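Researcher: Checking consistency across runs. Here is Armadillo-type protein again:
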Amino acid sequence: MGSGGRSGGSSHGSEGRATDFGTNGNVNRRGTIRSLSERFDKYTELSGQEVEAEDFDYEINNNSPSSTVGSGEGGFKLERPGLLKLNSRLSNRSWLDEDDSSDEDVFAEFDEPFAEDDLQTHIQRDKQARLSARVNALVDDLSFNAAREDRLRDVVWELLNIIIASPEMQIQLVSSHGMLAILEVLEDYQSHFLYPSREIVLQLLRIVNLLVTENVSFLESFCLIGGIPVVMGFTSKRFPSECRLEASNFIRLLCHTSVLTLQMFISCRGLKVLVDLLDEDCSSASQAPLVAHALNGVSSVFDLQSPTTKNDFCRMFVREGLLEPLSGALLNVMANSGMKMKIIRILLVFSQVSQSDSYVRHAVGTRKVIRRLLRACELLEPECLVLMLKAVKHLSMNISLLDVLQNANTIEILVRILEEQASSLHSTEMSNHIFQTCFNLCRLNKSRQEEAAQAGIIPCLQRVAETQSPLKQFALPILCDMASAGKSCRMLLWQHDGLSMYLRLLEDPYFQVSALESILSWLQDEPARVEDELMRPNAIRSVLDCFVTSKANSFENLLELFLKLTRISSRITTAFSRSAAFFRKVADRLGHNTKPVVRLNLLRILKFVCDAHPNRGILVERYGSGGGLLGVLESLSRGGGDGVVLIRELAKEIIQVLRPGLKPLPGGSRVGSRGVTPKRMRRTASETSAVTVGVAAGGSVLTTGKKPSSSTGASKIISTRPKTRLKDIPWQGTQ
């Protein structure tokens, strides 16, 4: 009965469905399919997740007995328009009775593509739910079992495995306040001086690093809840090296992830941690990563773009004691391969420190640090050496550090590097830094100049002086100062032909003053040898050309030097008097230059030249007539527009030398009131043989009474007055 009723109802329902499908169209068909789909879903849920998918075959009759729509083994066979017929086996798990073949399950073995996806989604959802519940439970255990080390070890280990196997659980751990629970456990161990097994601390730190490595928001959240000071504490040497390495990895993330995390790290006094990590042995495989992380962190701090200046960071690092461990790490790093970039970062840090204020430079200028820097210069590769030399150059700019650099043999090391790296690709940059450093060290210090000369810097300086390199502005002042540095410097200058170099420099308008000063200083110390060299034709020509061809600016500075030169050496002054170009230059400058100092120095030089000339008559013939030098001097003697008394009087004295008409003296000699003394003529023997002169005690002249011979054509009259004495002869400049 029940079976028949169900069969009848089903048959009737089938006809109704067929009729509705044919008459009413899509409306009834959609309702029927929706009803069957709901029943199938309900059946699937009741039977669990063990349903094996089978292919269903539907056919739709459409006046073609074999036409099907779909793919696979079955399909919808179209027998007549609008009639849907199931062409498949009856499912073994159909909710219909097995004996009822008239009413088949339309969707019994229909396997939709989304059914399997939904199944996997349900399975994954269940797995996620179980893992989430487990993570929540582990977080609770982490909070309530912190004092039980055995239980805590299991909880931490399981939590770490879940995070590694299912990275998506990181979000669940953070949302369930897992980071705060981990932080509380770590903080309790630090604050109560509890020493758990290294596995627990190590696994907790690994969990933290796993959480914050890939997600910046997790890192910032962990910093905001106070995680930075807690994790930094595990970098202490009282913890195992594995724990210190995990803590340093966390610090590395802070320094390189974002500006916000780096600022929070600095605000938590993290610079002290970086300094402590630097004070490790780089030769140890377990401690080398700590030094590398610290170096990266220091570089990040100096590269930070913030309102805080680099000088402030330098002061903070100096206060934390950075310089000694940093310089020690510099030497230790070079013993390991693959640390080239770390060395460059160290050099950049030193460069930054040396460029800061005097307080920081003074802290850098300890003998220990300086010696380490210079030792590193001897070991570094050229690429890194350039940066180190730059740091040393900046240190030499502070006067208070010059003595420290000298005591550390800086000059000797730099000169050796200059010679060794002469053919290097970076030789230009190295020379730039070395010459500037030597210039700062040797300027105005004779002891350092002697030290540099003994170290062999003179040939290096001369090579630069012979080129058009911009380094001449640093090399030539050092060379010019060495002439007055001391006996040892001058001896080395003789060996390297230093005087000839100075004479060549007289042609350079920018360094001719310095070169002439060096020559003058050398002449004062060794007058005989230097004067002999200067009296050579080429040398005296170079000196005269310097005077004649000098420009207006340098000419004024050269006058004082030429005045000293004419005072020191009469031979050189005499050589000047033989040059017509010299007198023309003097006349031109006296006529066109209106500065009283320039005119006075020119007149003094001209006075020395006139006094030293061996034949003053030649000067009168060449320059005593015409409107040249004499005309300029006469104008100056009358006032010359400026009315300076010294210039007027000195011009009058020189005019008496060049005036062609001189006042005759008694006896036929010609001399002016301040004229040139006539040359004394020697008496011949024939003039004195005629008479014999005897002088009595009272001063009378005794004669023989013998008359002179008539053949002489004149008689010699012997006067009875005393002979004229030497002091009675009117000499030059006397009345």
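Researcher: Does this match what you'd expect to see?
Model: One thing to look at in this run: Confidence is low (pLDDT under 50) at residues 1-32, 46-98, 660-727, 731-735.
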